Amino acid sequence: MKLDIIGDVHGCMQELHHLFVKMNYNNSQDSYVHPEGRMPVFVGDITDRGPYSVTLIRLVYEMVIVRKTAKYVPGNHCNKLYRYFLGNNVQERHGLETTVAEYKALPATEQTEVRKKFIELYEDAPLYLVLPEANVVIAHAGIKESYIGRTDKQVKTFVLYGDITGKFHPDGRPIRRDWAQHYHGDRWIVYGHTPVKEPRIIGKTINIDTGCVFGNELTAFRLPEEEVVSVPSEQPLHEEKFHYSSE
Questions:
Q1: Using H for helix, E for strand and C for coil, what is the string for the chain?
Q2: What is the per-residue pLDDT for 29?
Q3: Pick from 47, 87, 107, 123: most CB atoms within 10 A?
Q4: CA-CA distances (angstroms) from residue 9 to 35, 44, 134, 149?
């Protein structure tokens, strides 16, 4: 199995297109297909903050649900959008407001279509992916080795939000423990969630959220090659969104 695991896209459709082209995918009928049958895997947070969240929902639905030529695991932003589409009372902030604005600008029939597609995409997705044939576990914010195989509430919180402490930085960001420092497994764990300027490799863990929506890069990690491929962002740079401490 040959994989191209794609970091947090956050509605950055142009950059995703450029990344697929750089990895030699063909753009075919509202989808992307690799001539050698490589499998793209989206590591969550396909929407919010960026300019084309609705387009991303349609694309990922087409590739994952309709064609079954890609895989997807949800992120915390996906979880919040899912709860919004279910009619739950969620706060429209931290990027959700941009997706909601796009969604509400659609005609009613298209709103229904997009809502149904995303709900199906989310409900069909595993909490995280274990792919023994590629020796990898793919989880939005990472996963402890002892959690692999579990899907209880504790594990769900970890996978969506990271190893949170319940405390917060002065700017409101949650304080997280650096779980990757304590991972000693022999399977790759590929994740995103926390923006970094360069892919962060510790042992056999790699964070590939290189902050595309904050103006840096969109990154994919290719297996079995263990190769990183990135394209530059077209969004304005927000230097303050990148953090280098253990969090």
A1: CCEEEECCCCCCHHHHHHHHHHCCCEECCCCEECCCCCEEEECCCCCCCCCCHHHHHHHHHHHHHHCCCCEECCCHHHHHHHHHHCCCCCCCCCCHHHHHHHHHCCCHHHHHHHHHHHHHHHHHCCCCEEEHHHCEEECCCCCCHHHCCCCCHHHHHHHHHCCEEEEECCCCCEEECCHHHHCCCCCEEEECCCCCCCCEEECCEEECCCCHHHCCEEEEEEECCCEEEEEECCCCCCHHHCCCCCC
A2: 81
A3: 47
A4: 23, 8, 23, 26
